[in-house]
Amino acid sequence: MPTTKNIHLKILFSILLLSAFFSCDFKKTEQTVTRKNPHEITFISLSHIGGTLGHYNIIKITEDSVFAEKGMTSNQTHKEWRSGITTDTWRKLISSVKIEDLNHIKSSPSQQSVDGIDETIQIRTPKKSHIYVNAFADTVHYKQLEQLKEQIDNILPKEYR
């Protein structure tokens, strides 16, 4: 019996030691890009998700690329498109967005609960991420986001607009 107790203790100790080892958080050494302006836009995302058929259209844009995907869960369709963009295109795209005014834009309740489609817009800077759901209801402050959407439509193929 004493050897059985020792084996159980060894197993228990090993399990505790391994779990402690794997739960340790090792800091990854990543090189971060130092930005000169903390209010500079680094990422834009526009999505339309919902409806009775599970429709989705997601667009993600960075300073050098654009990615779009769309589909419908009801019939399991999915399409993707990627492309690079120039610095001039990026500047033109973000020219209508005034970072200091983004805090004034108000989101509205989700419409997905009544089979509606939600529009979500995300604008990310190194300092903050601004996320808006159905902000089109805020007619006073939505104009710059509407202009941004028009600029996005100009760089996308027709099938992803």
What do you see in this structure?
This protein is α+β, with helices and mostly antiparallel strands and 161 residues long. Helix content is 27%, strand content 28%. It has helices at 2-23, 87-94, 143-155, and strands at residues 43-50, 55-62, 65-72, 77-84, 117-124, 129-133. Strands 4-3-2-1-5-6 form a 6-stranded antiparallel beta sheet, with no helix packed on it. Helix 2 packs antiparallel against helix 3. Mean pLDDT is 85; it is low at 26-32.
Key descriptive features of the protein:
161 residues, 6-stranded antiparallel sheet, 28% strand, globular
Q: What's the quick description here?
A:
It contains 3 helices and 6 strands. It has helices at residues 2-23, 87-94, 143-155; strands spanning 43-50, 55-62, 65-72, 77-84, 117-124, 129-133. A hairpin with a 4-residue loop joins strand 3 and strand 4.
Q: Helix tally?
A: 3
Helicity level: 25-40%
Give the mean pLDDT. Answer: 85
Which sheet architecture does the biggest sheet show? 6 strands, antiparallel
Order of helices and strands: HEEEEHEEH
